[in-house]
Amino acid sequence: MSSLFVNIAARYCLKARAFKRDEVAATAVEFALLAFPFFLIVAAILQTSVVFLSTQILESAVHDATRSIRTGQTQKSSGTLETFRAQICDRLFGLYPDCSRLHLRVIEITNFESAGVVVPTDVTCTQNCDWTIPQIWLPGVGKSTVLVQAYYRYPITLQFGPLGMSNMADGSRLIGTATVFQNEPF
């Protein structure tokens, strides 16, 4: 009886030693452990890149579109806020899912020092958030100083808590740009 027990124990020990040496699935196990953090980091890098690219594209589009105000082309053709929005949206390369959500303020100011930029939304709002400052279209006349502001609530796909790209309570990122210029005499 004891020899039977010794034989079973010996076979079990041999199999245990063989199992310890068996490294056939080691790579698969290591990949399984590291795949999730790796792909999470890659996704975070892509999300960050898209947000920064979208910010730069919005700034460039607003700068390019304001040229028609600066030269008086918009005023001479009786341009509206919607035509100005369309000029900006044509330059956004499809990075903004809904261009109607672009909040624009074009106002004539007295001089460059009086330019004041105010965030047009409540960043603590969590649902049904609306703009707190109305859109304005006052492109001015020749030689007037104009302040143009554009804002967009950009949707953030991956939320990483305090490390995420969202800067609003509803999980989106408020992207904005502002430019001040003096119209040419026209």
Give the gist of this structure:
The chain has helices spanning 2-21, 26-70, 73-76, 81-89, and strands at 103-109, 136-137, 145-155, 172-182. By secondary structure, it is of the alpha+beta class.
Radius of gyration, in Å, reads: 30 Å
Give me the number of helical elements.
4
Alpha carbon gap, first and last residue: 111 Å
The run of helices and strands is HHHHEEEE
Principal-axis shape: rod-shaped
- Estimate the helix proportion, in percent: 40-55%
Q: Which stretches of 5+ consecutive residues score pLDDT under 50?
A: none
Oligomer kind? single chain
Give the spatial strand order of the biggest sheet: 2-1-3-4
Give the tally of β-strands. Answer: 4
Structural class: alpha+beta
Write down the overall mean pLDDT. 89
User: Largest sheet at a glance?
Assistant: 4 strands, mixed
Number of domains: 1
Q: How big a fraction of the residues is strand?
A: 15-25%
